[in-house]
């Protein structure tokens, strides 16, 4: 009788053991993998390292090979002259914007465990390192020989509400158009994108050009093409756009000069008298010529890129 009673007990123990083993070996179906957990942890650690520096920092004093020495007492005058700040906007996603008296330069950035920041402009345009001292002042030194001392204005990226001059955002029309030499007059700086294209037409070691789309002037009376242009080289770049087609329903030009790393939204207005919407054209081409300048002299290295502007080519 004892044997008969023992057998069901043993069977139950074996069943429970098997269940425990099966549960222990069963993968976490539907949950994150070990690699995903590790990647998430790494991303959180990087974000935590960036957190103390996120926001907008404005200069107190500047030492710049091209702008000269600008001590703290003179900075307000320089700011008012250019109607633009000298500062850095750090976002928590590792991107940012360097506003150099009107010239806007996008960058990526990292922070190490010791609080040292590394800021990298597009392509080979240059880099900077930064540290924050015990008083909360940031010192940034660049590969171009520049040095600036800054203070944190806000801890929110993109919050320029407390600044005297907010950097101009061409895509929204908000902010102040700075007196930088790449700026045009208001007619060419204010536009409204009516047909989005978002197609990269040039991307090499020197330049990046994205065909943003078709836009109109605020009045709606003129139409043209908008391009995002970034000088990826470590030299000043001059460029000119031309737009045309075989039946002369499109014609326009635009010239500009960009500092190393600078980004500009170029609005090339169609000045032909043809009353044909650009979005309906079956033929339209753009030509982008650029060269570099050093010490005020052209390096005679002009290059030419051509691309189609018809909306039907958008993918």
What would your notes on this structure say?
This protein is of the alpha+beta class. The chain has 4 helices and 18 strands. The protein has an 8-stranded antiparallel β-barrel with strand order 1-3-4-5-6-7-8-9. It is globular, with a radius of gyration of 28 Å.
Q: Number of DSSP strands?
A: 18
| Mean pLDDT score | 89
Strand content: 35-45%
Give the termini distance in whole angstroms. Answer: 81 Å
| Alpha carbon gyration radius | 28 Å
Q: SSE order in H/E notation?
A: HHEEHEEEEEEEHEEEEEEEEE
Q: What labels describe this entry?
A:
single chain; five-stranded antiparallel beta sheet; 4 helices; 18 strands; 17% helix
Short description:
By secondary structure, the protein is an alpha+beta fold.
Show the helix and strand layout.
Blueprint: H1 2-25, H2 34-50, E1 55-64, E2 68-70, H3 75-82, E3 86-90, E4 95-100, E5 103-111, E6 117-121, E7 127-132, E8 138-142, E9 147-154, H4 186-189, E10 192-203, E11 207-216, E12 223-231, E13 236-244, E14 251-258, E15 263-269, E16 285-294, E17 297-298, E18 303-308
Antiparallel strand pairs: 1-2, 1-3, 1-9, 3-4, 4-5, 5-6, 6-7, 7-8, 8-9, 10-11, 11-12, 12-15, 13-14, 13-16, 16-17, 16-18
């Amino acid at each position: 009788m004892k044997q008969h009673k023992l057998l069901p007990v043993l069977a139950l123990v074996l069943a429970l053991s098997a269940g425990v083993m099966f549960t222990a070996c069963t993968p976490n179906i539907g949950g994150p993998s070990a690699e995903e957990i590790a990647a998430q942890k790494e991303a959180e650690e990087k974000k935590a390292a960036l957190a103390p520096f996120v926001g907008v920092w404005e200069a107190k004093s500047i030492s710049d090979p091209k702008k000269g020495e600008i001590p703290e007492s003179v900075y307000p005058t320089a700011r008012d002259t250019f109607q633009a700040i000298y500062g850095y906007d750090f976002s928590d996603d590792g991107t940012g914007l360097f506003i150099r008296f009107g010239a806007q330069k996008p960058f990526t950035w990292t922070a190490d465990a010791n609080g040292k920041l590394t800021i990298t402009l597009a392509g080979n345009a240059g880099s900077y390192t930064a540290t924050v001292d015990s008083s909360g002042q940031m010192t940034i030194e660049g590969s171009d020989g520049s040095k600036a001392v800054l203070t944190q204005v806000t801890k929110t990226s993109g919050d320029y509400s407390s600044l005297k001059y907010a950097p101009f955002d061409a895509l929204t029309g908000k902010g102040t158009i700075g007196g930088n030499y790449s700026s045009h007059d208001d007619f060419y700086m204010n536009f409204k994108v009516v047909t989005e294209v978002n197609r990269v037409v040039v991307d090499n070691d020197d330049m990046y050009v994205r065909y943003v789309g078709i836009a109109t002037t605020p009045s709606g009376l003129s139409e043209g093409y908008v391009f995002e242009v970034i000088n990826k080289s470590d030299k000043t770049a001059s460029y000119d756009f031309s737009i045309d087609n075989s039946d002369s329903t499109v014609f326009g030009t635009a010239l500009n000069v960009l500092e190393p790393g600078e980004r500009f939204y170029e609005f090339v207005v169609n000045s032909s008298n043809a009353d044909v919407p650009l979005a309906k054209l079956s033929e339209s081409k753009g030509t982008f010529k650029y060269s570099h300048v050093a010490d005020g002299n052209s390096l005679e290295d002009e290059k030419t890129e051509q691309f189609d502007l018809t909306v039907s080519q958008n993918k």
